[in-house]
Amino acid sequence: MDNNDLKNILKEVIMPGENINIIDKGIINNIEILNNKKIIIFISLENPALHIRNKIYSNITDIIHTKISNEIEINFNFQIKKLSSYNNIKNIIAIASGKGGVGKSTIATNISAYLSDKGFKTGILDADIYGPSIPIMFNIENDYPTITNKNGINNIKPIINYGVKIFSFNFILQNKPAVWRGPMASKILHQLIKNIYWEYLDFLIIDLPPGTSDIHLSIIKEFLITGVIIVSTPQKISISDVKKTIAMFNIDNIKVPILGLIENMSFFLANQKKHYLFGKNGIKKLSNNINIPFLGEIPILQIISESSDNGYPIILNNNINYFYKKYFILIMNNILKQISN
Ligand code: ADP
Q: How many domains does the chain divide into?
């Protein structure tokens, strides 16, 4: 039995719901045969859905056991196939939260501004269609991306500020309320995302909507996400929503690695004393309990909300004292450590 014999046998396995066999579809990357007793099959699929994978695994197992031998042990090595249009994006980091208003966009803005400042080619996709605030935070509220047509395909050129390539769904929504639902949202997202011309990026930061929604599922389907960061305030009410968000990213056919949790609005400083308005260390304790890295805390600071409103990320502003920026810098170092892990 060699690889060619096996490939011929595997031509009898049809892709679930399609009219093509798995060899012609090109989902088998490699086959290793060990002592004619064990076979390792390396598979890559664009659709990571578990039920499709399981169906393929069981059909492959059945045909090998029937046509060769019942004794053969079969192992599968699965990889999600990168969509070719995103091959030029090295790391895709999604920023999520259980609730709205916890500082997710503020943190996404500062992360991307920091990475760009450090020389990384960086983009940000504002996918928070229910409250898109990235254009304000980047001071590009009145800008509109240019669209060119190349060989019949529309290319949307992101707007660049502070060296960051920015695309927000608010460019399309134009401050109208987002009433996108289910399949319609997925279709529009897919079309739009496909046409954004990022060119090469070291990092694409995606600002997700709060909570769990169809938009999350669409984004997860569109991009091979390197990892997700979850932002929350420390009070009990927020924590239960964080747990739901973590559970979503842990679902078997979603499975996005969680890089860590960030606690925002951890405390308020007055007279050189920390006041824990929303309780002490809620997210830090949660991280410990569920064994997910804690990436750091950020206090409530007037200068943070002013920077957001002024469209000038605090991390870039040389007129702002290091004391206020150090929380973000510490978090950035932890994020980069997690990614290199
Ligand atoms: P989300 O994206 O989670 O909805 P935002 O990032 O839009 O939240 O933040 C909501 C508001 O809170 C914004 O006005 C922002 O400037 C402010 N904000 C966020 N984090 C802080 C903080 N640590 N201190 C003070 N204001 C903050």
A: 2
| One domain, residues 144 and 244 | yes
Give the distance (Å) from ligand 1 centre to CA of residue 69: 61
**One domain for residues 66 and 137:** no
Closest CA to ligand 1's atom 4: 101
The domain boundary residue, chosen from 37, 61, 80: 80
Closest CA to 340 of 93, 71, 43, 17: 93
pLDDT, residue 48, reads: 64
Protein residue with its CA nearest to atom 9 in ligand 1: 103
- Residue 225 beta carbon below 6 angstroms from any ligand 1 atom: no
Ligand 1 proximity of 233 Cβ (cutoff 6 Å)? no
259 pocket-lining for ligand 1 (C-beta < 6 Å): no
For residue 300, how far is its CA from the centre of ligand 1 (angstroms)?
9
DSSP state letters, 43-88: EEES---HHHHHHHHHHHHHHHHHHT-TT-EEEEEEEEPPPGGGTT
The CATH code of the domain that includes 45 is 3.30.300.130
Helices (H), 128-235: 134-137, 170-173, 182-195, 214-222
Predicted confidence (pLDDT) per residue in 169-216, tens digit: 888 877 777 676 667 777 777 788 888 999 999 999 999 999 988 888
Please tell me the pTM assigned to this model: 0.80
Domain boundary among 32, 50, 80: 80
